[in-house]
Design a protein that fits this description.
This protein is an alpha+beta fold and 81 residues long. It is built from 4 helices and 3 strands, in the order βααββαα. The protein has one domain (1-62): YefM-like fold (3-Layer(aba) Sandwich), CATH 3.40.1620.
Length: 81
């Protein structure tokens, strides 16, 4: 992982793009603080049919809500001392 200044990135962007194409990561600094990261582009993978089904089941369960088995707290009681 290489760390470079913003000015260096502006002047040598092509060089750093080639490094990223080879799999390297480049951190761009502004006043010695990281502000950007150049990383190789990764193609996102598609979910399998099983993963899609699991996601749908989870979303449906979330819409139903989860019972905590208790009573609904009253705001004033929460702040009693």
């Amino acid at each position: 992982m290489e760390r470079i200044t913003l000015q260096e990135a502006e002047h040598n962007l092509g060089k750093y793009i080639m490094a990223v194409e080879k799999g390297e990561t480049v951190i761009i600094l502004k006043q010695n603080k990281p502000v950007a990261c150049l990383t190789p582009y990764a193609v996102t993978r598609q979910l399998s049919s099983q993963q899609i089904a699991a996601r749908e089941r989870t979303l449906a369960r979330m819409k139903q809500g989860f019972s905590l088995g208790g009573i609904c707290p009253i705001r004033d009681r929460l702040h009693e001392r």
